[in-house]
Amino acid sequence: MGKVLLEMKNITKTFPGVKALDNVNFQVEEGEIHALVGENGAGKSTLMNVLSGIYPYGSYEGDIVYNGEVCQFQKITDSEAKGIVIIHQELALVPQMSIGENMFLGNERGKKNAINWNETYGEADKYLKMVGLSESSRVLIKDIGTGKQQLVEIAKALAKNAKLLILDEPTSSLNETDSRALLDLMLEFKKQGMTMIIITHKLNEVVYVADKITVVRDGSTVETMDCHTMEINEDRIIRGMVGREITDRFPKRSNVEIGQVNMEVRDWTVYHPVYAERKVVDGVNMNVKKGEVVGIYGLMGAGRTELAMSIFGKSYGTGISGTLLLNGKEVSLKNPREAIDAKLAYVTEDRKGNGLVLSNSIRVNTSLANMVGVSDKGIIDMDKEYQVAVEYKDKLKTKTPSVEQNVGNLSGGNQQKVLLAKWMFTDPDILILDEPTRGIDVGAKYEIYCIINDLVKAGKSVVMISSELPEVIGMSDRIYIMNEGKFVGEMKADEATQENIMACILQSGRGE
Amino acid sequence: MTKYMDVIKKNAMLIVLVLVYIFFTIMTGGSMFSPMNFNALITQNAYVFILATGMLMCMLTGGNIDLSCGSFVCIMGAVGGVLMVIKGYSTGISVIAMLLVGIIYGCVLGYLVAYVNIPPWIATLAGYLAFRGWGTAILSDNSSTGSISPMPESFLKLFSGKVFETGINEFNTVCFVAGIIASVIVVVTSLMSRANKVKKGYEAESMIALIVKCVLSVAAILLFAYKLALAGGIPTVLIWVIVIVLIYNFITSKTTLGRYFYTIGGNAEATRLSGVDTRKIMFFAYLNMAVLTVISSYIVVARFQAANSTAGNYYEMDAIAACVVGGVSAYGGSGTVFGMVVGATLIGVINLGMSLMGVNADWQKIVKGGVLLGAVVFDILATKKNATK
After folding, report:
1. Could you report the per-residue pLDDT of B71-80, keeping only the tens digit for each?
2. Cys bridge to A437: A353, A445, B141, B286, which one at CB 3.0-4.6 A?
3. Do B272 and A348 count as a contact with CB atoms less than 8 A apart?
4. Which A residues 373-392 touch B at CB under 8 Å?
């Protein structure tokens, strides 16, 4: 057994009305990768905020013992001075600045009030090499991909002399390849003696990288599993997280009849709205049948969202060409309104960015895409609107005290349900769901899958875009595989495996 | 206890308004409470209510403002002066011509903001500079004093003076009856709305709260009507203001069009992908602003009975301040017509009270600046507190 680097003893943190952490005990040994898992709202982030001093000493009960001494952090810089560095889920980089400038932001090299640029870029290059990036540190952040940006974040942490690195959902915006590269980098750091805590929803990553797993549930640490002494698999972790056995992560669909083709896309090509010569979607052919769930799998940047948005009333891209047929008839949808009227719905990928109006209530969000349904000659029938919101709240089991609650106060899973409610209320025939379960916990995912099943049972068609392979395979009847703007494969669900889908993508890449 | 705190927090600005009014009444030895000053409060601030209504609609779409409205009031006055006084056109034709000019400007501005994507404060900054200069140029071309007067009687009657005017020291019955009718309408509509909610089983306020609310609003309306009745009757501009405020209160709270203003301010992209033509709404916000600016220019010209080059100075700032003090979010997405009315009244009361006290103009500006900052800080702290709950 190694030396204990960090021990958090009996941590209790209360917010007005809520006990966010209740007597939490958490131990990390030197040189290990410790995974912290739990459902959304279980208290993982709160625990890490206590550790890094975002919640200052005195605002919580209990002790933090780090390297044998009791710490009383007042602010983040206090914990960073000890080598505890946290990398947050949302990237905290300034896009218009160079890698080097970002890396030493708030930690500038040189004399007081005078930055030494040679030292800045020289050191930055050194740290970039450590994370395996070959870019010059003078390149602007906006010119590199998200995967590389995440690596810059890590390099930035290293530049602060990190001894204990905390990664909060480091792969949530990365594709499979970049995620794997990042995890391998973590294993490399471990060899060099670094201690790390990783918070993630992706259980396959936990299994791949972790030495120990601590499960947090409802503000308490439930158990710590040692990956070297016991057999760990994803089901075992899920059982710990939800406190019960989830026998099947994907609910079965039964008796759903797959009917006629009701949407078909032929030779669909879309160009980038700014760089008009760049093809984003290239000659895509696809179809969706009534009662069918069609999965579109592709890595980030493959053009999936762009494809969906361009079909949905040309809301993305320029120079769109190709044919769109709905129920066998060729249609031209010039804007989202026409798409909605043609019974198409696009449930957006980014619920906070372009899906929901967070400052408004569930009621307002539910009716937003179909105001005609709750109004007469432009005048809103408030009673009807309220009833509709309550009806969908009950139907989708959205957890909220009232439909007058602002959507911004809901958890990710419940926000996703409100978003689905909004689009279900437009009474679509075809729903395009873009990453419907991103960033939501296992329990809420299951509920979303059930909603998808209910939709197809009611004769709707669902196109599900996802970058989680198990989800695509578990939920779809048929899968299209997309890479670099093209459809590179099509498989029936029963013949699809993680291996042959990835192989399909790799082969298409080599073909060029 | 928390229930009372909630009520107080919700109506904080209204309570501040009452307290400030009482403060000035004491400081001015009761002069603030005189019928004449009730009348002055309305006639002096009518333009703020109207401009702030337009500004509210712009701000809802995402904290967008119109800096050009004050200067536009000036050039509209010049146009109206030339048409009515120099060229001798009838009031009707001139009023319509001014409105048309306003619509044309509104369309151009709306196009630039909504379709060319020029940031509103830059697009309107151009108008702020140009219209002041242009208006002044028109006035000095047509008059050696730089001011055009007198305005025709029919124009003044339409936008200033009083309805059914009575002499000093005479009680204006029409005005008081109008107050009684307004009170009855308020009481009946609130009772009906509650009854409807209870019948359908929705959350409704308690009967006691409703009665307290009704008693307070009726008292306020009757006090106002009584004071105005003693000051010669209902000012014509009050009717303009009430009509506009009621229309926009209806639009913002009950129509789909109004709803879109809020959702665009909350999340423009989500609103666009929900099938709403967000550009059309932005266009409408600025067209609407221009039309309301023309209406307020009628009132300003009629009040001064002349068109001059200083008309409309800082009016855009008054309108923005009224909105912000009235709780309209500077980032868009929230704010109500009622809040804006309270904000505009509060600023009007502070202006009037300080003038009556003989505070000099420089200090008045300092105080107003402080009030504006205080209102924003209060608003942000209040929302923060709510969020951490």
Report:
1. 999 999 999 9
2. A445
3. no
4. 375, 378-380, 382-383, 386
| pLDDT tens digits, A88-109 | 877 778 888 899 998 888 778 8
* Tokens encoding A243: 């406190």
Confirm if A422 and A414 have CB atoms less than 8 A apart: no
Q: Which of A15, A337, A383 sits opposite B200 (nearest CB)?
A: A383
Q: What's chain A's average pLDDT? A: 87
Interface membership of B252 toward A (CB under 8 Å) = no
Question: What is the per-residue DSSP string for B292-357?
Answer: HHHHHHHHHHHHHTSEETTTTTTHHHHHHHHHHHTT--TTSS---HHHHHHHHHHHHHHHHHHHHH
Minimum-distance CB partner of B254 among A16, A312, A379? A379
| Residue of B203, B274, B284, B384 to mutate, interface with A, max A Cβ within 10 Å | B274
Of A411, A427, A443, which residue is a domain's last?
A427
Q: Is A41 helix (H, G, I), strand (E, B) or coil?
A: coil
Residue A350 placed within a domain: no
Q: Is residue A86 part of a domain?
A: yes
The whole-angstrom distance between B211's CA and the closest CA on chain A is 23
| Cβ burial, residue B364 (10 Å; 0-12/13-18/19+) | middle
A442 and A242 Cβ atoms separated by less than 8 Å: yes
Helices (H), A54-143: 76-81, 99-103, 117-130
Specify the amino acid at residue B110: G
- pLDDT tens sequence across A296-348: 998 767 889 999 999 999 988 888 999 999 998 999 999 999 999 999 999 99
Dist CA A79 CA A100 (whole Å) = 23
The sign one gets for the Cα dihedral B234, B237, B243, B245 is negative
- Three-state DSSP at B150 gives coil
Cα B274–B280–B286 angle (5° rounding)? 130
Amino acid (one-letter) located at A110 = G
A216 lies in the same domain as A337? no
A196 and A116 share one domain: yes
CA gap A143, A140 in Å, rounded: 6
Q: Does A419 touch chain B (CB under 8 A)?
A: no
Answer yes or no: is A393 within a domain.
yes
> Do A194 and A172 touch, CB atoms closer than 8 A?
no
Distances (CA, A) of B131 to A75, B56, B141, B214, B310: 52, 22, 15, 45, 12
Q: How many CB pairs lie under 8 A apart between chains A and B?
A: 84
Q: What is the pLDDT of residues A470-488, one digit of tens each?
A: 888 889 999 999 988 899 9
ipTM computed for the complex: 0.86
Structure tokens at A31: 């040189």
Chain A CB contacts of B202 below 8 Å: 383, 386
Tally the domains of chain A: 3
Nearest one of B290, B310, B289, B285 to B300, comparing CA atoms? B310
Residue-range definition of the domain harbouring residue A41: 4-242
